[in-house]
Amino acid sequence: MGSEFDPAAPANIQHPYDFFATTRDATPVFHSSALDAWVVSRYDQVEAIVTDHERFSNAAAIHAPASLDPVAAALLSGF
Fold it and tell me: Is 40:2 a contact under the CB 8 Å cutoff?
């Protein structure tokens, strides 16, 4: 269930609370292939993760894109 999570799916956009309510009980932590990221759905776990910078970091995941998508580059050209 969780691994197939697509935040852009119409059902998830229209009713995101239904998905997360079910997920908190069934699979509170899962890897989403659509996001290529881990999803944590319980508040206390999210809070623990965002406040523990020694064990949880995104330092290895941060990287600049080699080039911008042409649409994104056009939007940013005015700045």
Answer: no
Query: Tokens standing for 44?
Result: 């206390």
Q: Residue 18 and residue 11: Cα distance in Å, rounded?
A: 9
DSSP 8: T
Identify whether the C-beta of residue 30 lies closer than 8 Å to the C-beta of residue 23.
yes
Q: Quick one: tokens of 2?
A: 């969780």
pTM of the model: 0.61
pLDDT of residue 69: 79
What does each C-alpha distance from 27 to 22, 41, 66, 72 come to in angstroms?
A: 8, 8, 35, 35
Separation between Cα atoms, residue 48 and residue 62, nearest integer Å: 21
- Pair of tokens at residue 46: 């999210």
For residues 54 and 31, what is the distance between their CA atoms, to the nearest angstrom? 21
